[in-house]
Design goal:
mainly beta
Length: about 90
């Protein structure tokens, strides 16, 4: 069982959350090329190490959040609320 720390609800079983994939910036669909859009939709980095991921708390607060996960060890770092940078303190904003 993987316990994922929701920033609002606290640690929750990963089965009670929805994994929404690697977190990366979405290009502007009006100005990007078809190749850039295809890269955004289908290609992922899949690094060995820390990866910023998107999660959704479907059984609790029903909010989206980001969390850093080490892809080799499964270790999780503090969750990141939308609008904040990874590792930011409560008062820091993007």
């Amino acid at each position: 069982m993987l316990l994922v720390p929701c920033p609002n609800c606290g640690p929750m079983n990963a089965a009670d959350l929805s994994y929404n994939g690697e977190s990366h910036r979405r290009p502007d669909p009006k100005t990007c090329t078809p190749e850039e859009w295809r890269t955004y939709l289908y290609l992922r980095e899949n690094p060995s190490g820390w990866l910023l991921e998107n999660w959704y708390c479907s059984s609790g607060c029903r909010r989206h959040f980001k969390i850093e996960r080490h892809t080799l060890t499964g270790e999780l770092r503090a969750p990141v609320l939308p609008g904040r940078k990874p590792g930011a303190t409560q008062g820091d904003m993007k």
